[in-house]
Amino acid sequence: MYNKIIDGMKKEGKSFLRLAIFSTILFVLTFIYMYVNEKNFQDKVVLSMLMVYSMFSLFGLYGWLYSIKYRVEFDNERVYLKTLFRKIELNICDVKKYTCNRYRKSVFYQFNLFINDKKILINTRYKDEFEKVLNDYKIEQIIK
After folding, report:
1. Given its phi and psi angles, is residue 57 left (phi above 0), alpha (psi -120 to 50 degrees) or beta?
2. CB 35: neighbour CB atoms within 10 A?
3. Would you put residue 138 in left (φ > 0), alpha (ψ -120 to 50) or beta?
4. Distance (Å, rounded) from C-alpha 90 to C-alpha 80?
5. What is d(CA 136, CA 49) in angstroms, rounded to the nearest whole number?
6. What sign has the CA pseudo-torsion 106, 134, 94, 76?
7. Residue 140: CA atoms inside 13 Å, Cβ hemisphere, count?
8. Which of 16, 95, 123, 132 could make a disulfide contact with 63, Cβ separation 3.0–4.6 Å?
9. CA distances (Å), 60 to each of 9, 54, 138, in order?
10. How many Cα neighbours within 13 Å face the side chain of 32?
11. Is there a contact between 65 and 107 (Cβ–Cβ < 8 Å)?
C-alpha cells in the first residue's frame, strides 16, 4: 500500500498576512500623522508608534512566510519536512518513539519524533493516517 499525503499551512497564513498589511498601513499613516501635527522623530510617541507597527509588521510577515513555506509529505517509508529555514528527509524506520498532542484549538496535531538523540517536530492535520504509518513499523507512542 503506497499512500502519499501532502499537508501544508497556506490557509493559516491568511491572518498573518492581514496583520502584516494592517500594521504596514498604520506604519505609513504614522508619517502622515507626523507631517500633519508637525512632529519629528525626537517625539517619543511617534518613535514608539513606529517601533510597535514595524514589529507587528515583521511578525506578520514572518508568520505568513513560514506558513507558506511549511510542507509535510509522508508515505509508508519516508517523511519530508520543508520549512522556511530547513529541509528534513527521514526514514520512518529510524524513529524510535513519538508523542502526539493537539496544538491548542487548531486542526493541527504535533508529532514529536525521537530519532537517536534528536527530536523532530511535525505538524499535520492527518493524525490517524500518520499514526497508522507509525504503528505499521511498531513504533512506541509516549503518553504523557
Report:
1. alpha
2. 9
3. left
4. 7
5. 55
6. negative
7. 7
8. 16
9. 15, 10, 40
10. 5
11. no
Tens of pLDDT, residue by residue, the chain (144 residues) = 568 999 999 999 999 999 999 999 999 999 999 999 999 999 999 999 999 999 999 999 999 999 999 999 999 999 999 999 999 999 999 999 999 999 999 999 999 999 998 999 999 999 999 999 999 999 999 987
CA–CA gap between residue 102 and residue 74 (Å, rounded): 19
Burial class (CB in 10 A: 0-12, 13-18, 19+), 16: buried
Contact assessment for residue 126 and residue 111, using Cβ atoms and an 8 Å cutoff = no
CB 70 within 8 A of CB 110: no
**Grid cell listed for 86:** 530547513
Task: Measure Cα distances from 30 to 42, 46, 51, 87 in Å.
Answer: 14, 7, 11, 39
